[in-house]
Amino acid sequence: MNTSAHNLTIQQVAEATGLSVHTLRYYERIGLIHPIDRAQNSHRRYSQDDIGWIEFLMKLRATGMSIQDMQIYAHLQRQGDCSLPERVAMLTQLEAEVEAHIRELQEHQKLLRHKIKYYGSLLTAPEREAS
Amino acid sequence: MNTSAHNLTIQQVAEATGLSVHTLRYYERIGLIHPIDRAQNSHRRYSQDDIGWIEFLMKLRATGMSIQDMQIYAHLQRQGDCSLPERVAMLTQLEAEVEAHIRELQEHQKLLRHKIKYYGSLLTAPEREAS
DNA sequence: TTACAACTTCGAGTGCACTCGAAGTCAAGG
DNA sequence: CCTTGACTTCGAGTGCACTCGAAGTTGTAA
Predict the structure, then answer these.
(1) What is the pLDDT of residue B130?
(2) Same structural domain for residues A91 and A35?
(3) In a shared domain, residues A70 and A16
(4) Residues of A with CB below 8 A from B94's CB?
(5) Distance in Å, residue B93 CA to nucleotide D16 C1'
(6) Is there a single domain that holds both residue B104 and residue B116?
(7) I need a surface site. Which of A67, A82, B13, B112 has the fewest CB within 10 A?
(8) Which domain holds residue A113?
């Protein structure tokens, strides 16, 4: 089973993922993405596996992981199975940070809702102001 | 009732809020904070109300609001009650974004937990690898 | 009186994560 | 043959949100 057919141009990957072609080349340059296979004309050809990896990277970014930590993670990934413990450690750490971040956002959301409600009440029954 | 006693130096506010003195002056410079009252020696003296406002600003930042939007909000606040509708609109918009962000984080958290569990299982019962 | 710390303004510098522009190659279409 | 357009590399530029350093003033303590 060949899960790595090389069929997509950088343009197509940009459209599929929402990253710009600039960002795709940038990610490769800094080692977030392994050197992508090339067609005879030296153009990049992305496999489905490549897309999967890029989408995973985007999720890491969206959780707030820094580019630097993603570089470390990508490097570990390339080491193969022997790096599993470190990767699990990184993901576990990240998961905890995401959990904390969610809780913080929920707190702030409460305040926003409270303020919206209060300000709203001032609008319908006017003439006063405080916090 | 005077809720605006002027008693805190910039240093004390920095310690109380966790912002740096640089950032406090920066926020004032760009209009996020109104011009703080001064002691005779021209040193800033922050009131409890000022602290309250700064803490609110920090919460807006933590939800992801940009400095630019915070400038707009601060400006509206200074207009007084007549700006309430706009402020409610901004807060409502922000609340929706926070809601969406929380959901996104929860999705990514699910994936992280899944990966951690799967990689963990590889560690105890070794020799295989996939997604 | 002299040292020191904390404050002041101002403009410049930093780090991050892109984002872009220049200059060149190459293949297909008219 | 010539144009068009998608690709290539490389280094430089951008925008955001701080962050810092220099140079000066002031108030207290030894």
Answers:
(1) 54
(2) no
(3) yes
(4) 112
(5) 22
(6) yes
(7) A82
(8) 84-131
pLDDT digits (tens, 9 = 90+) for A45-96: 999 999 999 999 999 999 999 999 999 999 999 999 999 999 999 999 999 9
Q: Both A102 and A129 in a single domain?
A: yes
Using a CB-CB cut-off of 8 Å, the residues of chain B touching A123 are 84-85, 88
**CATH for B73:** 1.10.1660.10
Asked if A61 has any chain B CB less than 8 Å from its own CB, the reply is: no
Mean pLDDT of chain A: 93
Is A76 in CB contact (< 8 Å) with chain B?
no
CB pairs under 8 A between A and B: 88
Task: Measure the CA–CA gap between B86 and B109, rounded to whole angstroms.
Answer: 34
Residue A116 distance to chain B (closest CA, Å): 6
Q: For residues B70 and B95, state if they share a domain.
A: no
- Digit-coded pLDDT (tens) for B41-65: 999 999 999 999 999 999 999 999 9
